[in-house]
Amino acid sequence: MPKTVIDAHTISKVYNPDTIPVYAVNNVHLHLEEGEFTALVGPSGSGKTTVLNMIGGLDKPTEGNIYINEVDITKLSQSELINFRLHNIGFVFQSFNLIPVLKAKENAEFIMLLQGVKKKEREARLQQLFKEIGLEDKMDVRPAQLSGGQQQRVAVARALATRPRFILADEPTANLDSVAASKLLDLMEKLNREEYMTFLFSTHDQRVIDRARRVITLVDGRIASDTAAVSTEFPHG
Amino acid sequence: MIFLLAWRNSWRNKARSIVIMLSVAIGIFAGMGVLALYKGMMKSRIRTVIDSEVGHLQIQHPEFKNDYHPSYVLPDGNLLLTRVRSLPEVKIAAPRSIVQGMLVTTTSSAGVQINGVVPELEYATSQLKQKIQTGEGFHPEKKNEILIGKKLADKMKLKPGSKLVLTFSDTTDNLVSAAFRVAGIYQSGNAPLDEFNVYLTMQALNELLLTGDSFHQISILLKNDEMLTKAGAQLQQLNPSLLVESWKELSPETDLMVNTVDQYSYIIMLIILIALAFGILNTMLMSVLERTREIGMMVALGTSKSKIFLLVFTETIFLTIAGTPIGLMLSWLVILYFQKHGLDLSGMGEEMLASFGFGTMIYPSFPGEKLFPILMMVIGTAVFSCLLPVIKALRLNPVEALKR
Ligand SMILES: Nc1ncnc2c1ncn2[C@@H]1O[C@H](COP(=O)(O)OP(=O)(O)O)[C@@H](O)[C@H]1O
Ligand SMILES: [Mg+2]
Are residues B74 and B214 both part of a single domain? Predict the structure, then answer.
């Protein structure tokens, strides 16, 4: 039986609860298993970022609980959360993911360094990662000299380096042209297949949505549809 | 890695970093310059006090200072003088007879201290010869000659060759008066002393005081300043019944001035550094705010608060410390130059400087002994100026930061 990595129970995020409450996320259930390759889709303002931030332990839900590998992260303190993120979750953000003063390989090394991985191990992993992302020749280059797509691939390498439980990517292709977007998706798919890495990414780009194995659609902070749910509840349509 | 990051971040905005480095350098340069000037002035003041005012050490009858009664001569003075001269630390020792009295001319009068000196010895001990501005000084064949200070001469309208009368009481409390002719007018850098001290030959004064070949004071110059404590203790031990005093006790105002100026120079340094601190604080705050997104991202990835703290702190330290060697080098070179060639402060007013006992030529001296405290203060400044930026960085909410 596949292992559950994310289990979000009726989570809601309410802004301005005292004046005019805004439900950025409303009663969302989300269940993700190891090895999934899932897209969170929806128009701008539908709550994708908010959901990802809550699952990633960057933001706390107003209501509900989130279990990551059976740990309720809504109960963790600020500093416990920082440590939890460091050891369990990989992040890829929309843009400006990399630290500009660090070389590509140093950026990818960042989380390994924070975790205190030994130098020899880091070096080996970096070689392997850059081969995987196809940027062996760009290891010593600063982010500014990389294209947007290359930067995002380095960000994926960084997220992957310490083999987290899953990788959250908030609109990782939003600033990429379609070729670069497609290449990034190729990489993510390959990692999902070969390293069995779980991905949850948000997007509103149809070409990206088409590549996801499971698509959860958000509208106004609510789940409007979930292909996994559809396939289990209504087999064969 | 945090250090690498801090180091590279320090060079991110080169212009800004260089401005900070230069302001630290200039601040330190200015501070060191002031300290060097002070130290030079103090050194020259101490030099003057020792070489031309009181010597390193003086020996007197313990009662003499109380009312300057002429009967308090040094017992067996000449024997004592021989013994003092035989000490290896002693370079020269000069006897003086001293009495307080009145100097009277046809038009005015003034209270003075009359010093009876052996000219050759006095010339060597207190540089009296070099201080003579007009007139020839004592003539060996003439008695009843007097040297007076320029300030007194101006006030009393006396010139070389002028006649005046001194009145004082002798050892038997009889009032004696005698006429003297001005053989020279001297000027030291210390106007108040010039106004008060007049010089006769010891022989002439002793005849009037009825003290024979006795005298009241031995003024001693040592071979070097470092021997002061040891030689002073030794002399006191050899002559327990006499009063042995060093220049610090003889010129307490100088000692006080040296100490006050010392504290003062720290205050000046502190003011400079506080001004610097606000500049650095401002820069670091800007640098943190500019990187809101980046720092937010680092926190999102799992960078602990202590590492963020360390990052901002280290960057501040780098910026602050980087300017320090430049400032120190610069001040060292400039001070070295003026130490050799002197700094002419006559623009500030010769009279004013002289009234405080300073000459117009100052030879600044590198305050090497203050290097460590200054470095400590600079680090303190860096710590102080990183506080607010650090707090800003730590308060950063990654969700908000990433939205930018
Ligand atoms: N700090 C905030 N205060 C008030 N409303 C917010 C705040 N952050 C987000 N929202 C609102 O929450 C909703 C969901 O936003 P978001 O999760 O960013 O959507 P998406 O990522 O799908 O574009 C939006 O309507 C947005 O205006
Ligand atoms: Mg969004």
Answer: yes
